[in-house]
Design a protein that fits this description.
With 122 residues, the chain is an alpha+beta fold. The chain contains 1 helix and 10 strands. Strands 3-8-9-10 form a 4-stranded antiparallel β-sheet, with no helix packed on it. A two-stranded antiparallel sheet has the order 1-2. A two-stranded antiparallel sheet has the order 4-5. It is elongated, with a radius of gyration of 21 Å. The relative contact order is 0.16.
């Protein structure tokens, strides 16, 4: 089973093989060579009282998801901070979908502007 974390320095995705359920940090990026500790939100990314902390030890559950414990509150958190989340891979299908979504949005705005002009003249 593999887990993925993004390097906060160069934003490359780091995949590592899981041998057990504990991984010590800091991790070393294979692209830029920098050592880093992944950042997590405690207790949750959507909480108004959240704070970001650097993980000292990563744990991996049975499904391959990375989590850790907040040293201050001892909460279990799976919420990686934005600098540690892997970015989605660029694929031609994703690029086409993004283009079509943007095209539909622009067409909708133009049609709405035409509708407003037509009703404003009446």
């Amino acid at each position: 089973m593999n887990a993925q974390i993004a390097c906060p320095n160069c934003r490359s995705t780091i995949s590592f093989r899981i041998n057990g359920n504990t991984i010590d940090t800091p991790l070393t990026c294979s692209v830029c060579g920098q050592s880093f500790a992944p950042h997590f939100y405690c207790p949750d990314a959507r909480s108004s009282a959240r704070h970001i902390f650097a993980a000292t030890t990563l744990r991996v559950d049975n499904l391959g998801a990375v989590y850790t414990f907040c040293p201050e509150h001892t909460f279990t958190t799976y919420a990686l901070a934005a600098d540690s989340k892997p970015r989605p891979k660029h694929t031609p299908l994703r690029s086409l979908a993004r283009f079509l979504d943007s095209l539909v949005y622009r067409l909708t705005l133009n049609l709405e502007a035409l509708r407003w002009q037509m009703f404003a003249r009446r």
